[in-house]
Fold these 3 entries.
Entry 1:
Amino acid sequence: MNILILGAAGKIGRQLTDDLLAQTKNDLVLYAKNAHTRLKLKKSERVKIVDGDFKDLDTLTSAMDGIEVVYINDMGDDLSTNTIIEAMKKSDVKRVIAASILGIYDEVPGAFGQWNKRMIGNLPRMKAQIKSALAIEGSGLDYTLLRLSWLYDEQGNKNYSLTQKGELFKGTQVTREAVAQLITDIITAKDERYIKKSLGVSEPNTDWDKPSFY
């Protein structure tokens, strides 16, 4: 299987690259701005590196040649998201996994939901995330949307729990390591349990008023 990681130089993108190389036999295309400089340590016969922007339709389309799964590491710009969707349709790529953030459906309850709204609810980036999620869900693609809780790093902590669209969000935080493992698990799933799903992603037993690191 050939997998395109858009935003491969980010922390989750880097962890996902390592996990896929270690846990699968898939070939990877790593796509990012100045990727050859930022990802120079990711050299492998199973890895191709592409310098590109999310708004560059031609470069995106070229990078998708032979690709079966696209992972989008950032949907904070809805114009970029729409360009990615257009490139996928031009390239006849159907499967996409896209990282979004919690709160796009106003699905976070209680004190944590109020805290989350104060922190990010009125930011332009939140509005762009909402538009991006709507675009993905209405694209006709075989999508999995990941609504990530507040992110932190803890080596070896790959614990995650999921909620479905329509359910209240649970959990205040999740490690980037856990998110990368979830994406790997989704890619390697033998059935369609993750297709056309919007999943809330958090760490089990973190139902607090705010993340532990705030």
Entry 2:
Amino acid sequence: MSKEMEIEFKNLLNKDEYDNLLAEYQLSESSLKTQTNIYFDTPDFKLKAKKMGLRIRLSNSTTEFTLKTPTSNQHTLLEVTDYLSSFTSELSLVEQVALETSEVAEYLIHEGIQLSSLQSIGKLTTTRGEVSLQSNVLLVLDKSLYYGKTDYELEMEVADAKEGALIFKDILKKHHIPVRQADKKIARMLAYKQQTEA
């Protein structure tokens, strides 16, 4: 289990901007990692109403069960993660998460949400490149695929919000990238999924 405050800045990119940044930061195809996020909510979207996000993240090395909750700071989220030995969509969360040791389940119960009320609401696969710019500044380039759509995103994870805002602004300016609102991945995926199902 881990618990941390995540401070991050995000900006949507077009494909050319994404490719240029990959080249600028020397991120080769072999250095990129692929991960799949499976998102969960109640049938009436109680987590969405609370601006919380819940996911299982599957990668080559780990299976993470993560709850993200908002804080008073616009760019900061509380991130609580349990590490699972495995996950299969054939079984429910209740069958795969040890309730007595799960910090995520404890947070959910505190919010009035039982694991048994949760269902999968969507899936998204990301190819991710990461580079450390300096101590406590991680630049992340994401290419995400969901329901036939591909989007590109620049993220930056920092330890200090004020310093991070300046560095992020400088990177966008240096590469002539316009400021573009980037909703959370779960929000983008859900909006597009609902659009295609309408």
Entry 3:
Amino acid sequence: MTDLAAALGVQICNVTPPRDVFYSRTGCRLHGLDWGGSGPEVLLLHGGRLTAHTWDFVCLGLRGEARLVALDLRGHGDSGWSDDYRIATMADDVVAAADHLGFDRVRLVGMSLGGLVAARVAEVYPDRVERLVLVDVATGADFESTKRMRDFILGLGPVGELDSVVDGALRVSPLADRAVLTYRMSKLFRLGTDGAWVPRADPRTPDFPALLAAIELFAEQLAGLPVLLVRGGRSKVLPQSAAERLVERLPEGELVVVPDAGHNVQEDNPADLVTALRAFLVR
């Protein structure tokens, strides 16, 4: 992890691994990675089908200036599966994590699906959120551009070798970095008792209409909050025009474009994302 982060340009001051955090809500066991650190308390929320580990490179670069905890949303990573994956439910999970950690007011970073959850937290619990970062998600996002990769990931089952999954992902997304993809897949799968690698995420198909409807609420949900919108410079999901339109509707909105990054900004170019987050979160 640290070697790959350094190769991606991340300046690392502390290589200590994060601490696992477990808590429960509504009968679902939930998990997070506590990176420690001092400074403002920041909760990081991953995108759909990803895990808390998607923030590993970013946390290695930012941990000296903030108290960072990356969460696994329910149904993802090392969190339990559930019959309830509503945005509102996952938002309540985030607040329960803050309570468990003893955090009063937090700064939220949400990528894609995590951005929808973060916006809901800000709307329902405005006294708990100090400022918020959306990573490559905004009203007007084009999620059809990710259909091939979504279908690939949703179709994943047990495999004998992770390299075969990486090969398939590269065929769908040829611009991705193989080393980064390999690291991601090592966190998206676990080794089963029969020796096969199985996906950690709940295989049920997300409620895409509900997710798209939630994105349309961003301007109203975030109107009273300092918001940074980060767009990947080569993202096909978030057009520049859509990003600019949302920021124009937010009284305290800012836009940063991270070069050499697609939708997964935090994995494609974590060094420049760390710079943007430091400027906004550690004010």
